[in-house]
Amino acid sequence: MYKNEGKYCSHCDPYEESPRHFLEKMGNVGIVRLVSRPVHFIESRYISIIDKLSNHIEHSLLHMLLMIRIMGQRKIVETDKISNRTMVLLHEAKNRGLDVSVLTFFGLTSSIFSITFSNRKIYFKILPCNKRLFNFDDKYEFKKVLSKNGIPNPSGKSFVNYDQAVDYVIEKINFPVVVKPLSGSLSKHTTVGVASREELRRAVAISQILKKDFVVERFISGDIYRITVVGGKFVASCMREAPNIIGDGKHDIAELIELKNADAKRGDIDQNSFTLHKIALTKSTLAFLDEQGISLNTVPLSNRKIYLNKKITLATGADIHDVTHITHVDNVEMFERIAHLCGADLIGIDFICPDISQSWKHQVCGVIEANSLPYIDMHHVPSTGVSRNVSGAILDLLQNRDG
C-alpha cells in the first residue's frame, strides 16, 4: 500500500508525520529559542545533577501516588502495547524471577514500569539506565567531546543559515556532505551525499522544515553499525543494511518484497512490538528504483541484490546483521572509551566504516552520534547472526548496584 504523499511528510518517510510539523516549528519561534538557550547551557553543564534530582522527584511522586491509590500496579500481559526495546528487558527480568509490573493511572495503563530486586524497586520509562555526564544525544555537544579527545568523527558544524554553511563546506570540508537537523533521530529530514551548492540549498531547506538549527558533516562512505556499551563494557555490535531483496530469476521485485515481508519476524511500521519491519513501499522506493533503471516489474537475476531505499532505518525495512564476534579489539576499546567520556552506564553508538573487523586506525571512518535510550532489541532479534543478550547485561549492572 502506498502512503498518501499529500497527507504525510515525504521527508519523514516512511513515518506518517504531518507535513506542517507544528510542534517542531514552535521550537523555531524567537521567544522559545531565547528561553531554550539558557536551559541548554545549564543542561549541558549540570545534566548528571539534573538527572539525579529528576529521578528522586519522580520516584518520590510515584510512591505518593501509589500510596493514595491514584496509581496502581499490575502484571504485564502479552497484549500490552510495549516497545520491543523495553519488552526484551522485561522478558529477561521475568526469566530471572524478578517481579515486573506496569503502573496504571486511574486504572489506565501508563508507560512506566517497575522491576523489583532483592531490596529495592526501580521505576523507569523505556529503559532503566540514564547515568551520563552530559547530554550526548545532542549531536553538536557529542561531536565536540569526540573531537577534543581525538576520536574519529565526520568533520562538521552546526548552522542556522545556508550562506554560512556553504562557505564552511567550500573552505573546510568540501563536497559531498550530509545535512541533518541538530536534534532528532530516525533520519527524518536528513539528506546524504549532498554534492553541489544547489543540492546543499535544498538539503538545508528540508532540514529547516523541522528545526532552524542544522548540522553539516563530511560524508563518509561505508556501512553503518550500532554498538551498545553497558556499564563501560562493550556488549554487542550489529550492522544495519538498507532494505533489499535478492533476485531468484523468477519473481519480480514487487513479488520478492511481498515474499520477504511475509516473514513472521517482520511487523508493520506501527507495530512497536516488532524489531524488524516490513519493507515500506512508498514513492521514495519507486524513485530510488527508477534511479537504478529498474521498476517493481523488473525480474532480477538470481542472487542479484537490489536496494530499495536510501534510508537505512528499521522502519524502512532494513536488515540487522550481528557482527559482535568480528569487531576489532581497537574498535572495542574506542567504544568503551566513548562510554567513559560520556559517563554513560548505557549508550548506543552509531559508527560508519568500510569494515568493522579492521581497526579504526587503518581506515576512513567516524563515530556519527550516540543515543541514551538505544534500541537494544536490534541485538536480540537480528536478521542474521547470533542474538546478543544486552538486556542481561543491563540487569547485571543494576543487580550489582543493588548488592
What features would you highlight for this structure?
403 residues; alpha+beta; Dna Ligase, domain 1; five-stranded antiparallel beta sheet; four-stranded antiparallel beta sheet; 11 helices; 35% helix; 22% strand
Descriptive account of the structure:
With 403 residues, this protein is an alpha+beta fold. Among the domains are: 33-124, no CATH class; 155-219, ATP-grasp fold, A domain (Dna Ligase, domain 1), CATH 3.30.1490; 246-309, no CATH class. The protein has helices at residues 22-26, 30-67, 84-95, 139-148, 162-173, 197-210, 253-261, 283-291, 329-342, 377-380, 390-402, and strands spanning 71-75, 99-105, 108-116, 121-124, 156-159, 177-181, 191-194, 214-218, 223-230, 233-241, 244-246, 266-267, 276-277, 305-307, 319-322, 346-353, 366-371. The strands form 5 sheets. Strands 15-10-9-16-17 form a 5-stranded antiparallel β-sheet. A 4-stranded antiparallel β-sheet has the order 1-2-3-4. Helix 3 packs across helix 11. The N and C termini lie far apart (52 Å). Residues 31-36 have low confidence and may be disordered.
